[in-house]
Design goal:
Structural class: mainly alpha
Number of helices: 11
Helix content: 55-70%
Radius of gyration: 40 Å
Shape: elongated
Strand order of the largest sheet: 1-2
Largest sheet: 2 strands, antiparallel
Distance between the termini: 117 Å
Number of domains: 3
């Protein structure tokens, strides 16, 4: 039922005709939409005005209640990231391409801040070592598989490369100097690898051979040499030449004179470990004289 104050009105936004109070200008839906827009603009202006205050307060609250808020924020972020992971990746990629210098500076500042935290540095180093070992194993497996399937191709490439560079005196001299410098820095490691290679060729490695312990023995040998000033060797108690194993229990540190005097003789009193190869099978019966070792 219309009142005395009602009149016919046409909404200027949507053009809808309706009957309402004479002071009305717009229909209900348009009025609500206009109120929403006005509220949003007012809120945005207020947010802009009090942006720094709100950020400071937020930061203060976070510092005070860090331990309580951490699980909650982590959970919320995970939920949000699961929903928007693709969108976030695309946005991050675009932002980095557009702001290369800013991105570098942010990363630099982040690492400067984090590097002061010893626990974080240790955790990162550990993570890096684990990832390196993981990728190294994968890479080695791929390389071995490729080498196995492409032996002829690789041999040919190697011969071609060597034929083209071997005639270059400067290159040869440079390689010689590089190898010499590497050997001077890594004597124990180099010699350990050489002996290991020799043992593998003779099939003198055992499943229980511990490379870390063998490397430690060679390191100790070099330490003794530098301390005493006398030449020492790591000796195989049962020599590799007669079937001895390349095993930590078959090694001892002796003077060079004692090792060279012994040569490839078998001395039962020293003990030692036999390998599981043809040399050991041929020599063991005669050398042990029926005694079990």
């Amino acid at each position: 039922m219309s009142k005395a104050t009602d009149r016919h009105i046409t909404c200027p936004d949507c053009g809808l005709e309706f009957t309402g109070h004479y002071a009305r200008v717009r229909c209900n839906p348009c009025s609500k939409a206009r109120t929403k827009v006005k509220t949003a603009i007012a809120c945005a202006a207020w947010e802009e005005k009090h942006k720094e205050e709100r950020a400071a307060k937020k930061r203060e609250d976070w510092i005070k209640n860090r331990e309580k808020l951490k699980p909650y924020r982590k959970k919320k972020f995970k939920e949000w990231y699961d929903r928007n992971s693709e969108k976030q990746r695309e946005y991050s990629k675009e932002w980095r391409l557009q702001n290369l210098e800013k991105d570098k500076e942010y990363k630099r500042q982040y690492h400067i801040t984090k590097s002061q935290n010893k626990d974080w540095v240790e955790a990162q180093n550990k993570k890096g070592r684990e990832q390196h070992q993981k990728h190294r194993k994968k890479r080695l497996l791929k390389q071995r598989e490729y080498s196995k399937n492409n032996k002829e191709k690789l041999n040919r490439q190697c011969r071609e490369w060597y034929a083209s560079t071997a005639s270059d005196r400067e290159w040869r001299e440079k390689e010689r100097r590089r190898n010499k410098a590497y050997y001077q820095k890594n004597k124990e490691q180099t010699y350990t690898r050489y002996i290991e290679y020799k043992a593998r060729k003779l099939k003198a490695m055992l499943p229980t051979t511990d490379k870390a312990k063998i490397y430690a023995l060679y390191k100790e040998c070099h330490r003794v040499m530098s301390q005493t000033g006398e030449l020492h060797h790591v000796d195989h108690m049962i020599p590799l030449a007669i079937g001895g194993a390349h095993h930590q229990d078959n090694l001892r540190i002796v003077s060079a004179f004692e090792n060279l005097s012994k040569a490839a003789k078998y001395i039962p009193e020293l003990g030692g470990v036999w390998a599981n190869n043809k040399l050991a099978k041929l020599n063991r019966k005669g050398k042990t004289n029926g005694n079990n070792e």
